[in-house]
Write a structure and sequence with these properties.
By secondary structure, this protein is α/β, with parallel strands linked by helices. It folds into two domains: 3-99; 143-347, Vaccinia Virus protein VP39 (Rossmann fold, 3-Layer(aba) Sandwich), CATH 3.40.50.150. 46% of the residues lie in helices and 15% in strands. The chain is built from 15 helices and eight strands. It has an eight-stranded mixed sheet with strand order 1-4-3-2-5-6-8-7, with helices on both faces. Helix 1 (3-33) runs antiparallel to helix 4 and helix 9 (146-157) crosses helix 10. The protein starts with a helix and ends with a strand.
Length: 350
């Protein structure tokens, strides 16, 4: 495959996705907005489904979401074929990664090709490269502002600290290829960061990117976020980005319990994920997204009572709020398709 053909194909798919985002999504949502506000506020998921699910616009919307992603990853000019053709496994696997004690990949993690990426993000030595390239167009309207999302979140994480001078300990759970880890390390260069992920290919890529950016305050380990191997009460700040919706409900509870265990008294945890919805229409759209995009646990996350779960574990000062992924976005009023970005913050009692 010629690289120019691959790039042109991926650009074409992105243009289709932008049109889907800006033009098709508003048409589907309009059918919901045509109801009076007092009626919309009382609608539940089943009510929206009965109104929307059989309409031609929604059927086209749903088909496009599923198949644009399929084209992106496994089409004739897809990411998987492109990287498989070019990859030299020996160059990517020549350095060992430290693993947590008794580490093993969870069964749920291996059962589904998450995001429709063939083989998932863990099975081949070039899987991290595919995941990183695919993530560049996950939120099509951001364009060159994809960097904003992670830097904005890093700033929120460190907003109450003297970032440049702070020497605390941070754990980035489910760090992937390090896209959120790197801005944290840059903003708090004297901090000590432990970045963990299940995927060895992603950890390999994250480590290489950290070296390129001359970030020496990050240690990368292959570990389950439910079994970090950290000692009790040793972490000042715990965080994750887009991890919760990738785990079944029982694993999420174990994850929060592990976070509570490793945090120091008075320590803080802040997670960025998808949870708060404007209305029942949003819930309907993302229930569908859950199966269309091979995100089998996203739907169950929406049903979880996170404040109650966190309180039962022992967390205090729980704050859950919408997160604007770019400066010019107002989450409650945004007219186009976007993820329901949610900041989930909490403290361990002092």
């Amino acid at each position: 495959m010629l690289e120019r053909d691959f790039i042109n194909s991926q650009d074409f798919i992105l243009s289709l996705k932008i049109n889907w985002t800006k033009n098709l999504y508003p048409k589907v949502r309009k059918k919901f907005l045509d109801y009076e506000p007092n009626v919309r506020s009382k609608m539940e998921l089943k009510d929206v489904s009965s109104v929307i699910s059989m309409t031609p616009d929604y059927k086209v919307f749903a088909w496009c979401e599923r198949h644009f992603q399929k084209m992106k990853y496994s089409g004739a000019y897809g990411l998987h074929r492109f990287y498989k053709e070019r990859h030299d496994e020996e160059e990517c696997d020549n350095e060992e990664i430290e693993k947590a004690k008794e580490f093993c990949l969870p069964e749920y993690y291996q059962a589904v090709d998450i995001h429709q990426q063939p083989g998932g993000i863990w099975s081949e030595s070039f899987s991290g490269l595919i995941y990183e390239r695919g993530a560049r167009t996950t939120t099509p309207m951001l364009g060159d502002n994809h960097k904003d999302l992670h830097h904005r979140f890093a700033e929120i994480l460190l907003e109450d600290l003297e970032e440049k001078k702070w020497e605390g300990s941070i754990v980035d759970l489910g760090c992937g290829f390090g896209k959120s880890t790197r801005p944290i390390a840059q903003l708090a260069p004297k901090s000590s960061i432990l970045a963990l992920d299940l995927s060895k290919p992603c950890i390999n890529l994250a480590r290489e990117e950290a070296k390129k950016n001359k970030l020496s305050n990050i240690t990368f380990n292959q570990a389950d976020a439910r079994l970090t191997n950290c000692k009790n009460e040793t972490i000042d700040l715990a965080t994750s980005t887009m991890l919760l919706h990738e785990m079944p409900e029982s694993a999420i509870v174990e994850f929060f319990a592990e976070t509570f265990r490793i945090l120091k008294h008075g320590g803080r945890a802040v997670h960025l994920d998808f949870w708060l919805m404007r209305d029942a229409f949003d819930r309907f759209i993302f229930e569908g997204h859950s199966w269309r995009n091979n995100e089998p646990f996203m739907s169950s996350l929406f049903s979880m009572d996170l404040p109650k779960i966190l309180t039962n574990i022992g967390f205090v000062d729980i704050e859950i709020s919408s997160f604007a992924e770019s400066e010019n976005i107002e989450p409650k009023e945004y007219p186009y398709w976007r993820f329901p970005w949610t900041k989930i913050g909490m403290y361990k009692p002092k």
